[in-house]
Design goal:
By secondary structure, this protein is of the alpha+beta class. The protein has helices at residues 25-34, 70-77, 112-128, 164-167, and strands at 11-12, 18-23, 37-44, 47-54, 56-58, 61-66, 80-90, 93-105, 144-149, 152-160. Helices cover 22% and strands 40% of the residues.
Length: 178
Amino acid sequence: MTARKRRTNDTTPTDDTLVIESMNRQECLQLLSRHHVGRLAFAFRNRVDIRPISYIHQRGWIYGRTSAGTKFRLIAHSPWVAFEVDEIKGMLSWESVVVHGGFYVLNPNGSDLDRQTWRRARAAVRRLFPASWTPDDPVPSRTILFRIHIDEISGRRARAASTKSATRAPTRKRKRTT
């Protein structure tokens, strides 16, 4: 059996079981704030890669830590990245937010503004990992602090479509006679 396709003003064409809607900016930011693991996508030459990272969202920025590996070297060549976070409740119930923006490495030894920005970012990351930059640091190799500016943000959500019985007018109960 073939599912009928439909379209409404704020949804993507779907079959009769799924509705996909756009999320507004505030909903997208709320989803970013609820989670702390996302995926960083970046491109170098003819290759695109995606890596999971821990992060914290604060005032229009995504903050995180990394180590001086391949990912870091590749992003240095092209600092424009995408970042995605999902909240999945089921096959027909999910939300997904995508951010596009610049990837900035923070310098603890730069200008006064650089040092101030680095300290703010470190404080943000320490809310997730209080032992960061201490002898008890759970990931001491991640010495590079970065942030991603939220230049663009968009989100989509999926939900199960209402069933036909849920959209019908309620029926009246008949009085029982004996």
